[in-house]
Amino acid sequence: MALILGIESSCDETAASVVRDGREVLSNTVASQIAKHSPYGGVIPELAAREHLTAIETVVDTALRDAGVQVKDLDAVGVTHAPGLVPALLIGIHFAKGLTEANHLPLIGINHFLAHIYGSFVDSSEYRFDDPSLYPMMALVVSGGHTCIVIITLDGKAHLAGTTLDDAAGEAFDKAAKMLNLGYPGGPVIERLAKQGDPKRFHFPRSLTGTAGKAVAPENRFNFSFSGLKTALLYHTAKLAGSGELSGQDLYDTLASYQEAIVDVLCTKAFDAAKFYGVKSCVVCGGVACNGALRARFEQTAPRNVIAFMAPKKYCTDNAAMVGGLTYHYFKKGFRSPLNLDAKARLPLNTELPFDFSALQSGCRVDL
Predict the structure, then answer these.
(1) Phi first, then psi: what are they for 11, rounded to 5°?
(2) What secondary structure does DSSP assign to 96-137, as a single string?
(3) Mean per-residue pLDDT, 141-162
(4) Less packed terminus of the chain by CB within 10 Å, N or C?
(5) Which residues on neighbouring strands pair with residue 160, listed in sequence order?
(6) At how many degrees (to 10) do helices 248-277 and 292-301 cross?
(7) Cα–Cα distance between 184 and 37 in angstroms, integer?
């Protein structure tokens, strides 16, 4: 048995969690900064860092208290070190370093990207991260900062099959909401209002899908682009409302159609990749995976020959349970981070995932 403290501060949530053996979440504390950043329509890195600095000690103490454990009971501390906002990441990293040094505990740096994927397995009684029958696996990671398709193979290597060339899907939601004066964050408010609209009334572009009559370049088959969608919304709004603002049914139908375009692109490309790479399972995770329309489409349109599942909503948005859970597997394999562990805004996917099932099913192979 191993008790892991996970710490997350990559963006605008200060989070800490105690997880037992990678699966059992004993506590999961999150201090949100939405109210602080809402007036700006987005996250301000320096403001986020100050809020993390104010909150982190209380958040960690609360997580330990809620779990009924003390620092001396811990076996290791895992902390997000990349990718993310560097000023925000540094707060969590330095706190984790101080905690581990003072208490002679192992420090383990965690890739935020991979932690989101692991969020699909936290608290799950049905699926296990270390179940070789799920691999190769396709993960659709969708958030305000990331939109990508990751293929994880039997040898424990993560390969980036596709990513966004400009805006992430979550950013497309946030910027649309800002454009229409709907508030921040944009995803939840757009989803709520879109339920009253007709997603087929207006057509918005699906970039890099070939639906506009232009063939997609092979290198962009699994890549995303949402900047053109935002531009289309700008022109659509000007045409429909002139110098005023959209309201009533026009607003609801616009939002439903805009959301439909995003969901359509995400699922179409993800499942195209799943078929291309011959995966055994598909997961969707990240903050945008809270979106009900995306979850419904993902479940309904997944290829029949694959296992498809989603991270629970409480583990889709930034949290430390996913960090603590993944840390356990690195800890079990003997992985340790040096004390000079640094924050990085962008980081290639860590190809050293803590498992290797290739010897068990050598007949399964994905060419990348």
Answers:
(1) -140, -105
(2) HHHHHHHHT--EEEEEHHHHHHHTTTTT-SS--TT-GGG-SE
(3) 93
(4) N
(5) 150
(6) 40
(7) 8
